[in-house]
Amino acid sequence: RSGAGLGFVVHGLWPQYPPGFPQNCGPDGRSPSRAALESVADLYPDVGLARYEWRKHGTCSGKSPEGYFADVRRAAQSLSIPDNFKHPTEAQQLDPRDIARAFIAQNRGLRADMMAVGCQRGALQEVRVCYSKDMRGFTSCPDVARGSCRTQSISVAPVR
């Protein structure tokens, strides 16, 4: 969100199947505790999104809210954001493939078929990265990778 001063944040973590992903796997009586939500307050832009992602995808993980959010933290900590994207002070115009290359160069074992650079209305929207089920490394995800932005140039907003 422009002007939020956050840079890259976590949107979510979910199981990815060859076609699609599960969602809203039902109420299991395990709503995230305040402590569980606070444990990831530095990863999500707000606790509302963390709560929403738990309901939408975390309930499909087979884990408790604490276990799910521990996986979110592990994924976020294992991905290294390239320096020029951490806190850019100037707007940048880049080829989405160059953004992918920067993430690949920064993260050992990451390949183009394991990620996607998403754009919307000519601006960088997200970088999706696929992890193995045990969260120990990256994994190929052709359905996600096919969703990469195909335009020649997208804007990357400064972090303010």
Summarize the structure.
With 160 residues, the chain is an alpha+beta fold. The protein is built from six helices and four strands; from the N terminus they run H-H-H-H-E-H-E-E-H-E. It has a two-stranded antiparallel ribbon with strand order 1-4.
What do these coordinates show?
This protein is α+β, with helices and mostly antiparallel strands and 160 residues long. The protein has helices at residues 34-38, 47-56, 65-78, 83-86, 96-106, 142-145, and strands spanning 92-94, 115-120, 123-129, 154-156. A two-stranded antiparallel sheet has the order 1-4. Strand 2 and strand 3 form a beta hairpin. The chain is globular and about 45 Å long. The mean pLDDT is 88.
Q: State the helix count.
A: 6
Structural class: alpha+beta
Span between N and C termini? 10 Å
Q: Could you tell me the strand content as a percent range?
A: 5-15%
Shape: globular
Number of strands: 4
Q: Let me know the average pLDDT.
A: 88
Order of helices and strands: HHHHEHEEHE
Helix content: 25-40%
Main pleated sheet: 2 strands, antiparallel
Order the strands across the largest sheet as they lie in space. Answer: 1-4
Report the uncertain regions. none
* Radius of gyration, in angstroms, nearest whole number: 16 Å
